[in-house]
Each structure stands twice: as C-alpha cells, then as structure tokens.
Design a protein that fits this description.
mainly alpha, 8 helices, single chain
Length: 192
C-alpha cells in the first residue's frame, strides 16, 4: 500500500514513515526560514499534524514533498507574523556529513565550518521574503514556477526577489570578509 493511502487510512506506521522520510528536509527548510532550531522543529511538528489531518486534500500523491513544503512554509510564515524574531539569538549548529573515502584535513573542516557559519548567518540577516526564495530555490531545489505557486506570487516577482536576495547576500558576505581581514590584521599586529 502506498504511503499516502496508508496516511488516509490513519495508520500510525505511515505517519512515522512520513516523519522519518521528510523530517530532516522540513527541519532544514524551517530553520533557514525561522533562524531558530527549536522553533523550526515546532513548525515541522505542526506540519506533520496538519498533513496527517488533511491528507485527503492532497490531490496528487506524487506531489507529497511539495505539499509538505507548502505546509511548513505556511507554518513558518504564521510564526513570523506572531513573533518578533529580531530578539532571538541564533546558535549556529555544526552538522557535517563526511565522505568516508576522503577525510578532510582539520584546516579544511575549519574552513568549511567558517564558510557554512558565515553563509548561514548572512542568510539569516536577510528579510524573510528573501530568505524564503533562497531557501526554496537553492536548498530545496524548487523551480521558479513551483516557488511562485507555493507562495502565490507571480514568477517575475520570485525572479526579482531571488535576484535582490543574491545581491544582498553577496553584500553581507563581502562585508563579513572585510571584517575578518581587518580582525586578522589586528591580531597579527599585536605583540606576543
């Protein structure tokens, strides 16, 4: 029996399979949108509850992932409207996936961590509408047309937001590199 059919039959094992299959994907999406891991997990829990309750509304079982993405995005939007996120401090978590064949050196791991942290921090500095399109386009690998449908915006609006988001992200990252360069020079100039 297909997963969606089992969900319609309200089988608990189907819900657990749904959570195991899509949980990490949805948490990453929500985290990039909300900037807070605990709140992202709460949004994903809400997503699974809504999906389980409203599974009959899913018209095409082949679009389960995009349907879940739409639900989690709406849950995140709802949370953004309810709370002022400017006061939340972000704790960057270091989640590495290592390739067994090639173990990176300590320096490579550090550089990767710095880059991922910088990128994550830079994305979180953007307004929600820019974080949303970047997350859906780059991290969830959705097409412009899919993002437009999901957000109920015109495709040209999504293209414009994506372009502005890239420019703003680049500016933030360049400023961050300048700050790091200045900090490094200051550290080197200090007597030992």
């Amino acid at each position: 029996m297909q997963l969606v059919e089992r969900l319609i039959d309200k089988q608990e094992s189907a819900l657990l399979e749904l959570m195991n299959t899509y949980g990490d994907y949805l948490v990453r999406t929500a985290f990039l949108l909300l900037k807070d891991h605990q709140t992202a997990e709460e949004a994903v829990q809400d997503t699974f509850v809504i999906a389980f309750e409203k599974i009959r509304q899913l018209e095409d079982p082949m679009k389960l992932k995009s349907w879940l993405t739409a639900i989690v995005t709406n849950c995140c939007r709802s949370r953004m409207r309810k709370w002022s996120w400017k006061n939340i401090l972000l704790a960057i978590e270091n989640n590495h996936i290592h390739d067994d064949e090639a173990t990176p050196s300590a320096e490579e791991e550090l550089m990767e961590w710095i880059w991922n942290s910088s990128l994550s921090e830079a994305i979180h500095e953007l307004d929600y509408k820019y974080r949303e399109v970047l997350t859906l386009y780059y991290f969830n690998e959705m097409k412009i047309s899919e993002i437009a449908e999901l957000t109920q915006e015109k495709e040209n609006t999504i293209k414009s937001r994506l372009k502005r988001a890239r420019i703003k992200l680049k500016d933030i990252l360049v400023k961050g590199e300048e700050f790091l360069d200045e900090s490094e020079r200051a550290i080197k100039s200090q007597p030992r």
